[in-house]
Amino acid sequence: MKSSYSHFKVLFLLLFLGQLLFAAFGSFYTRPHYEGKIYATLGVEFFDKNDLHKLNEAAHYFGQTLIGWTKFPHFSQHLKEKAALPPDALFKAHMQERQNIIFTLNSKEPITSAHLVGTQAFIESELHEYNQKAGTRFMLSNVDYEERELTRSYTSGALFVLILSVLFSFFVFYLRRIF
Fold first, then answer.
1. 3-state DSSP assignment of residue 98
2. Residues 80, 57: contact at Cβ < 8 Å?
3. Using CA atoms, how far apart are residues 41 and 98, in angstroms rounded to an integer?
4. Is 95 helix (H, G, I), strand (E, B) or coil?
5. HSE toward the beta carbon, residue 98, CA cutoff 13 A
6. Is 95 in contact with 101 (CB distance < 8 Å)?
7. Which residue, 48, 92, 50, is CA-closest to 72?
8. What is the CA angle 102-32-109, rounded to 5?
9. Is the pLDDT confidence value at 77 over 80?
């Protein structure tokens, strides 16, 4: 009986400490962060003599190339300078389907429509430079923007810490039993 009472005290203490720590540092968890998205379709200029299917295929595969550009270390640095993005802004891109690309900006500071327009202008300038060098005519079309403020709830954080505390308690009990 004494052993289970001891276990209960340890469990209660760890749960209490977990919740106390979360209460002290929960503001870091619930602090809002911001996201901005640019939805775009990558297209190729169409002429009557071109095969539309081949142009769509070219735009699809070039979309993969465009996403590859965003992985270069200098790309984000130049983007932040040209679009006047917050210093902590993270940029990524992925294909939604075929020729549709979603460009995403994340930051602790608000992402404004000016940031999104500046990001689009930078991407289009990179496309223009590529088009001039390669003799192609790729372009972004059907562009749309989305700005969001994302905040995690205090309740979900407290519940998460509660679950972690219980798991940690079982781990402590297991270690005490082994040693």
1. coil
2. no
3. 9
4. strand
5. 9
6. yes
7. 92
8. 70
9. yes
- Return the pLDDT at 132: 94
141 bridge partner residues: 41
And the tokens for 118? 């500046």
Rounded CA gap, 145 and 20, in Å?
A: 40
Strand order in the sheet with 90-97: 90-97, 100-107, 33-44, 138-150
DSSP state of 133: H
Q: How far apart are CA 14 and CA 166, in angstroms?
A: 8
DSSP-derived secondary structure letter, 72: S
Structure tokens at 34: 């911001």
What whole-number distance in Å separates Cα of residue 132 and Cα of residue 137?
Answer: 8
Distance between CA atoms of residues 120 and 33, nearest Å: 21
Kindly state the tokens that stand for 3. 């052993």
Q: Specify the amino acid at residue 40.
A: A
Q: What is the pLDDT of residue 17?
A: 85
Contact assessment for residue 43 and residue 99, using Cβ atoms and an 8 Å cutoff: yes
pLDDT digits (tens, 9 = 90+) for 6-53: 777 877 888 888 888 888 887 777 788 899 999 999 988 766 566 777
